[in-house]
Amino acid sequence: MMLAEDDPRQAEALRRYLTAAGHRATVVADGETALRQAREQAFDLLLLDVMLPKLDGMQVCRILRQESDVPVLMLTARSAEDDLLRGLDLGADDYMTKPYSPRELVARVRTLLRRVRTTPQESPVHRLGRLTVDESRRLVTAGDTAVDCTAGEFAILAAMIRQPGRVFSRVQLLEHTRGVDRESTGRTIDVHVMNLRRKIEANPRRPQQLLTVYGVGYKLSAGAS
């Protein structure tokens, strides 16, 4: 994985924790280097500090998300909800605010990697209306259009399309993405759903498949016949 952190002491402390947990981390200190190395090497996870020099973590995430679905965990001293939602809107899969427990960070990393590396025993291809989700190849299509999803968005779609018509609460969907933790809220899922509607719905303002069940959560339907 790659760790982009410009504070040398913080970077070294995180690298040691990750190494002790059995991970290998390439450390970089600025956004331009992070972007270049992410393009040159096949990392399985990116840890991006928001306040990086040259290019900040948000910019790096935005650019890479157009090119790759590698999982991204944002690290920041900012705690405002707007910053959290902006990071998710750009395609980040998880978000931690400083100060945080290194043990919790390692747990988040483990969860993200497990979700990406785990493949189903069978290789189901699910179809519902215009939507197709191929779990084995991690492919999504809406009609004849290929859809690029982040790891979190794919986890939500895969969970919902296995049980079409079932209403999922926000807490349940969080469990399918990365589990419930002290920073995640229902707003996290709302942002993922908003982004998914932009990608799979003909008219995101009037969704036909990814529907809101007011006061409860969301469900996936076949859409208009």
Automatic annotation (TrEMBL):
<dbReference type="InterPro" id="IPR036388">
    <property type="entry name" value="WH-like_DNA-bd_sf"/>
</dbReference>
<keyword id="KW-0804">Transcription</keyword>
<keyword id="KW-0238">DNA-binding</keyword>
<feature type="domain" description="OmpR/PhoB-type">
    <location>
        <begin position="123"/>
        <end position="222"/>
    </location>
</feature>
<keyword id="KW-0902">Two-component regulatory system</keyword>
<dbReference type="InterPro" id="IPR001867">
    <property type="entry name" value="OmpR/PhoB-type_DNA-bd"/>
</dbReference>
<feature type="DNA-binding region" description="OmpR/PhoB-type">
    <location>
        <begin position="123"/>
        <end position="222"/>
    </location>
</feature>
<keyword id="KW-0597">Phosphoprotein</keyword>
<dbReference type="Pfam" id="PF00072">
    <property type="entry name" value="Response_reg"/>
</dbReference>
<dbReference type="GO" id="GO:0000156">
    <property type="term" value="F:phosphorelay response regulator activity"/>
</dbReference>
<dbReference type="InterPro" id="IPR011006">
    <property type="entry name" value="CheY-like_superfamily"/>
</dbReference>
<keyword id="KW-0805">Transcription regulation</keyword>
<dbReference type="GO" id="GO:0000976">
    <property type="term" value="F:transcription cis-regulatory region binding"/>
</dbReference>
<protein>
    <submittedName>
        <fullName>DNA-binding response regulator</fullName>
    </submittedName>
</protein>
<dbReference type="InterPro" id="IPR001789">
    <property type="entry name" value="Sig_transdc_resp-reg_receiver"/>
</dbReference>
<dbReference type="GO" id="GO:0006355">
    <property type="term" value="P:regulation of DNA-templated transcription"/>
</dbReference>
<dbReference type="InterPro" id="IPR039420">
    <property type="entry name" value="WalR-like"/>
</dbReference>
<feature type="domain" description="Response regulatory">
    <location>
        <begin position="1"/>
        <end position="113"/>
    </location>
</feature>
<dbReference type="GO" id="GO:0032993">
    <property type="term" value="C:protein-DNA complex"/>
</dbReference>
<dbReference type="GO" id="GO:0005829">
    <property type="term" value="C:cytosol"/>
</dbReference>
<dbReference type="Pfam" id="PF00486">
    <property type="entry name" value="Trans_reg_C"/>
</dbReference>
<feature type="modified residue" description="4-aspartylphosphate">
    <location>
        <position position="49"/>
    </location>
</feature>
<dbReference type="InterPro" id="IPR016032">
    <property type="entry name" value="Sig_transdc_resp-reg_C-effctor"/>
</dbReference>
